[in-house]
Design a protein that fits this description.
CATH topology of the largest domain: Rossmann fold
Largest sheet: 9 strands, mixed
Structural class: alpha/beta
Distance between the termini: 61 Å
């Protein structure tokens, strides 16, 4: 039996049931999921007898479920309902039809997801791009370029809003049509780190912010490793751009493997501390990535015929684009206007020319012709 697909914003009692289940002391996610599979909805769980609950839960858990709701429940209900009234805000329960399917089917999926922004991105094909907070300049550039190229190919970029690689990945995702999803380690109404405040606001407007934590929840050192399972759970694969030997990004990569996702890693210098984690992942079987094409081919987004089309574009089209580009860097939107094409359509064609080695992607969404 699967949890009933009911949008939880419909009634206050339904919302109360989900919040109460999440708050019940001693009932973790694995037990909560087992209860939902047995009884269908939180309301049915709380209406069950002790004997019925003991078929799934331990005695102390059953007693906690039978206890009266906590005094904070009503206050939290008021806060959540007020938050839901704000534009772009949505609360999704594991039993909601709008809950992202890829995440729903992972072990320990959150009972509730607070979502701000373009919730439709949660259902798009996506790849996580993660790495060191203390990234090198080259690592940041690599993350941004790879994320934008993958976004241009239609993939949504998932990351954790941390400094360094995460921030660069989000910015790259926003610069392409695929967009980006930021998974927070705080309540969705609190942004951490503060230095990424402007980026978070842009993601809320153009992408999507996600959190499993209650409104107002502060940053905690335990929250961030825990939220990594959501980053990998939302994505089809995880790309690690730069990571030290004990980086938190390796946690995300290993969670991805447990969830049946592919793992990709960007190699670096054998002398670089921030390459040790990536080299370790490659030794353990991660796919080595030197360009976005490596990820796209691994995800079967560059089939044989498609790969051939991208690496050998029509000569007349190549001539038109290269002539329009001239010798100086140019914005894709400006180029699209000059060629009389839709920007979204041109992005895919520019990716084909980039993979063919005919042009180079530069920071800031710029492209420049390469001379042989």
């Amino acid at each position: 039996m699967q949890a009933t697909d009911i949008p939880i914003e419909v009634t206050r009692p339904v919302l109360a049931g989900w919040l109460r289940l999440q708050q019940t002391d001693g009932v973790g996610l694995l037990t909560a999921h087992a209860l939902l599979l047995e009884f269908g909805t939180p309301a049915a769980i709380f209406a069950a007898s002790r004997e019925q609950l003991l078929a799934v839960a331990r005695p102390r858990q059953a007693d906690a479920l039978l206890a009266a709701p906590t005094t904070r429940l009503e206050a939290e209900l008021d806060a959540v309902q007020a938050w839901q009234q704000q534009p772009g805000n949505r609360l999704l329960a594991w039993g909601d039809a709008a809950y992202p399917e890829y995440l729903r089917n992972t072990t320990g999926a959150p009972l509730l997801l607070y979502v701000k922004g373009r919730a439709a991105l949660l259902h798009q094909r996506s790849v996580a791009v993660v790495g060191s907070r203390n990234a090198s300049r080259q690592g940041v550039l690599n993350a941004g370029h790879l994320a934008q190229a993958l976004s241009d190919a239609g993939l949504t970029i998932v990351s954790g809003l941390a400094l360094g690689i995460d921030a660069a990945a989000h910015a790259g995702g926003l610069d392409g049509p695929g967009g980006t999803i930021a998974v927070l380690g705080t309540g969705i109404d609190r942004i951490y780190p503060a230095r990424n405040g402007a980026l978070a606001r842009r993601i809320a407007d153009e992408g999507c912010l996600v959190s499993e934590y209650a409104l107002g929840a502060p940053p905690s050192r335990d929250n961030f490793p825990r939220r990594n399972r959501i980053i990998s759970g939302l994505a089809r694969g995880v790309l690690v751009v730069e990571a030290a030997a004990k980086s938190g990004s390796l946690i995300t990569a290993r969670l991805a493997l447990e969830q049946g996702r592919d793992v990709y890693a960007v190699p670096g210098s054998i002398h670089a501390t921030l390459s040790k984690g990536c080299h370790q992942l490659i030794r353990e079987g991660a796919k080595l990535v030197e360009s976005a094409a490596d990820v796209l081919q691994a995800m079967q987004m560059l089939a044989d015929g498609e790969a051939g089309a991208r690496t050998a574009p029509d000569d007349s089209f190549v001539d038109r684009v290269l002539e329009a580009m001239g010798e100086d860097p140019v914005q894709a939107d400006v180029l699209a206007l000059h060629l009389g094409q839709a920007p979204g359509e041109l992005q895919g064609q520019l990716l084909a020319l980039e993979l063919a080695g005919l042009l180079e992607r530069l920071p800031g969404g710029m492209f420049q012709r390469l001379r042989g």
